Amino acid sequence: MQTTQHKNTLEFAKEQDQNDPLRRFRNQFHIPKDKSGEEQVYLCGNSLGLQPKLTQEYIQQELEDWSNLGVEGHTEAKNPWMPYHEFLTEKMAKIVGAKPSEVVMMNTLSVNLHLMMVSFYQPTSERFKIIIESDAFPSDKYAVESQLKFHGHDPKDSLILWEPRKGEELCHFEDLEKIMETEGDQVALLLIGSTNYYTGQSFPLKKITELGHRHGAKVGFDLAHGAGNIQPNLHETGPDFAVWCSYKYLNSGPGSVGGCFVHERHANNKELKRFTGWWGHNKQTRFNMRHEFDPIPGAEGWQLSNPPILSLAAIRASLAIFDEAGFENIRTKSLKITNYLEYLLKEIEGDQIEIITPKNPEERGCQLSIKVKNANKDLFDKLMAAGVISDWREPNVIRVAPAPLYNSFEDVYKMVERLKALL
Ligand SMILES: *Cc1c(COP(=O)(O)O)cnc(C)c1O
Question: Does the reported pTM lie above 0.85?
């Protein structure tokens, strides 16, 4: 990475915005305003991405086709509903570095995680343990614990936590290697969040995949904080599966449908156990209704139901923007804007705040997690009151994420100025 000579001035921030090749995209989003009508400094795209202006139009199209066509919209709508999910696949696959046949948009993240574990967590009496990172998102932990119990295992001795060392916040890959050296032959599944929601640490996905596979375990990633943020290169990286949501960096609206990746090596394996429904069945004979289940090859074969078109329409609108901007360009800006945020925060780091996210840009996405040293949530509340939208994670972290599609260097500058005023 080339290093820019950063400056702590509004002029410098504005100049960066002027030179930003993606600057036109900010105007394609609705930026929430405060009571006085001023745009908020919205740094919360890691929790809920902002709404593209295009979304309304895309959803409106489906509402219109439904009102005009009724059931015939399945085949006659401008974008027929029957194959609608397929319209998303190619663009989504690019963002996560997969082949189109490896990706499907369906359900929501936690549901997809369970469906994937049905297929890729097949414990035996010798090999039944699951490893997750110790600060995994609660939903992931609940899902994993319930799967262990479902198969008759007690999480107390079958759930292994990959933990940071004492007094540290981040996980070391070497420690995961050590766990695998001692317990690897009992580990059935490694399930890791590609970018940790709390610390913002991005894990070495390829090394983790190779480590798991070398020891005979299956490997899955939760890309909730990875998809649309970092490039996980899923096909090449080679995990067995991955799941993600579309409402964080992918800007597709609250609770919108999630994504699922199944590696090509499993595409035609009809023996693999799975929970099934009609939407995963061979498209040619789906409506004959009397056939034995015949899965569509690839990720689509894991679909259960016909999907919610209004949600898919929102995803389609968002993916159109990602495609136009190009994910590489998005990542390039992400690196720059986060480096700038880090530079500004470093100037006010001290007895009150400290960045816990890795310093190496390759080990993080756009989020920086700021530890508030006396766990003073007041600081966060005041920052919100000052028009900076970020979020607080117990026990002591403020997460800020400049989303490269709509955040400006000026946003970042303003955020740090307002924080500085509060310290
Ligand atoms: C946001 C998030 C989820 C949310 O799961 P849903 O099923 O979409 O509610 C799960 N896991 C992680 C790591 C997350 O960041």
Answer: yes
